Amino acid sequence: MSYTIEPIEHDADAGLEILADSLPELFRAAALGMLDIILDRSKIESRTTRLVAINAESVDLLLVYFLSEILSLVQVEAFAIFDVEIGEINEKMAVAEVSGHPEIPENVLKTEIKLVTYHQLDVHKGEDAKWHGRVIFDL
User: Kind of pairing, strands 131-138 and 115-116?
Assistant: First the structure.
């Protein structure tokens, strides 16, 4: 497994530039990168899992919908996610298992992300045979 994540700084936003060897690694890296913006995952004990299944018309939209679903688990359902494991994935569907704690413990929340944006969104396989991704979050 190999990927790199570079933070992107914006005025009222945060973002990630991701380079990965495969599509599953790109999606996992994007999810973990987003989670690290909003949670201190080192303080989360993994006690249960949830399944996330998403369909979309394109790989770009799939990433936005996937990250939005994970964000919803944290912010709406108060599920403190420790890890994300990608199961089945292609350019129009993704299935993942997220593990974590069914309640967000104290002192775990760092920053609130309002939404995953479409601004400067990019997911593609480059000439280098690696997957490149860029996603911006509205804080």
Answer: antiparallel
What one-letter code names the amino acid at 12? A
Task: Please state, in angstroms and as integers, the Cα–Cα distance from residue 85 to each residue in 31, 50, 137, following that order.
Answer: 10, 11, 21
The pLDDT tens digits of the residues spanning 8-66 come to 876 668 999 999 999 999 999 999 999 999 999 999 999 999 999 999 999 999 999 99
Overall size of the chain counted in residues: 139
Structure tokens at 107: 């002192």
Whole-prediction pTM: 0.93
Enter the CATH code of domain 3-138: 3.55.10.10
Structure tokens at 82: 């420790």
